[in-house]
Amino acid sequence: MTSPEPGLPKELGAPVLPSTLEAPPAEPAATSVLQTAPAVPTETAPAAPAPVVQLPPANLGVAQKLQELIATRLADFIERKPEQAAVEAFYRERGFQPLWTSNGAPTKRAAEVGAFLKNIASEGLDPRDYPVPNLAARSTDDEAAANELKLTRSLLTYARHASSGRVSYTRVSASILYPANALKPETVLSQVASSQNARDTLLSFEPQHAGFKALKAALAAERNAPQRDSAPARRGEAKQARVDTVGLIVANMERWRWLPRDLGAVHVVVDVPAYALGVFNDGRELWRTKIVVGKPNLATPLLSETIKYLTINPTWNVPPSIIRNEYLPALERDPDALERIGLKVARNHDGSLRVYQPPGERNALGRIRFNFPNVFLVYQHDTPQKSFFARDTRALSHGCMRVQNPEKYAELLLSLSQPEDGFSIRRISAMYGDNERTINLKRPIPVHVTYQTAVVDEAGHLKTRDDIYGLDAAILKLMRGNERAVADVPIARDYKSSSKPVMARLPERSAVREARASADEYDEGRGDQRAWSGWDSRDRSARGYGAYPMTRFFDRAVGTW
């Protein structure tokens, strides 16, 4: 054990137990006591009494060394500060009595935890991440105390990974945001310490969803499947195919760990690679429909939110990114293009302008929008482009989800949220017109946007889908590659600042006049950037498209400035 720093006063360090403690007499009850440092009194409350724990004689030496390790070197074993605090409090509460050994031998609990972690591959995880020390080997008190903390560390690491993911989704994509699932370390330690069956307790930390359990069974079947009887030159190919399938299942099990444990009795699941949306009640799928999802470069974000209201006859406020990337080039080719699709311009209260499409049959959002407010500013909606649903591959949108049967979807959501109101497809369709109308859900319904490239069907067969956004590859690279040591460490994501605003800030009048005067220079990629100062700073690329066609559209749309 590392010695304290020279010159450190003993009274400033952790409490040091006597080097020898008398064993308790047989009768009356044992009186040997392992005491911790007294709490410092405060002005508002008396000091809490130190816990008094009676230990078997063989545990006293290990307990003393464990207390010293926790006081001086805990960070060498437990890296995360919340886990450090939980470990210190847990062992202090039990008088530093070891959890995994008694009288120099492993406890039944230690054997169960160790066996589970050694076979963790069955959970889609890597045993290297959860090393199990040899508690049965003869060891000194120093070694026994160190092994105690090593197994505790592996337990806490497994619990964190099982409950929230081996990989932090922040490292996979900026378009993923789920609620935190991680169990509190003090809860993990308490539950395992009080459990009569440690294996069952450990299994309770992982997702209990039927989809996760089915993939877990498929993983076992895939690993146990006999290798195909093929020519020697093809055996390596068969083995590689099986490895790829194992990786596919593992990646999908990982994404299940990111999802909330409680999806809601009534909830909606969007399955992006399946291009489908399902409505569930009490674990049973009531209805399913086709959807269109985001293109690979405009991926539909993965999230869990709540559908709070529906908009009938929605207005479409055109995002700046669409104006920049699609409408400016279109205006360059045809100055009348936006007018033909019914776009209009209005002035906001702050003097800026917005480009929008009023309600109607031609509106890009169709007749119904399903709103679940989120930082990515995406939603589900109807569409006038019904022909897209005939395609097998439907990654065609800017990130929002287009629904094939919006009236049926609306009817079902409202019947589950507020059956007493009697909403039907006929009643909803009768609301179509030129004015926006809002229907609030009295009982909001959770919606979970997921990415399932491997699922098990009702017949027990594994079905796979294309990894359209490359998330499987990204997850497996983090789990198996050079970054695996930090794969579970989140990285900062400023979701709100990275989201595109709904309202476009357009050039002020003086900027438009300057742009008109400098149109030729802009066509050549030159000119003063102040002409586009009203745009978001990320929209500077717009100047390469030419300013004149856009200003003509503004002039006709809003009249004299």
Question: Which structural category do the helix and sheet elements fall into?
Answer: alpha+beta
Radius of gyration: 31 Å
Shape: elongated
Largest sheet: 8 strands, mixed, barrel
Mean pLDDT: 81
Tell me about this structure.
This protein has 4 domains: 10-24 and 47-203, no CATH class; 210-248; 259-315 and 361-468, Beta Barrel (L,D-transpeptidase catalytic domain-like), CATH 2.40.440; 316-357 and 500-561, no CATH class. Residues 1-45, 229-237, 497-551 and 557-561 have low confidence and may be disordered. β9 (344-347) and β10 (353-357) form a beta hairpin. The termini are far apart. It contains 17 helices and 17 strands. It has helices at 57-77, 81-93, 108-118, 141-164, 185-194, 198-203, 210-224, 232-258, 320-333, 337-340, 406-417, 425-429, 471-480, 495-498, 509-517, 519-523, 548-558; strands at residues 101-102, 105-106, 176-177, 266-271, 276-281, 284-294, 302-312, 316-317, 344-347, 353-357, 368-371, 380-381, 395-397, 401-403, 437-450, 454-456, 462-464. By secondary structure, it is of the alpha+beta class. The radius of gyration is 31 Å and the shape is elongated. α1 (57-77) packs antiparallel against α2 (81-93), α1 packs across α4 and α8 crosses α13.
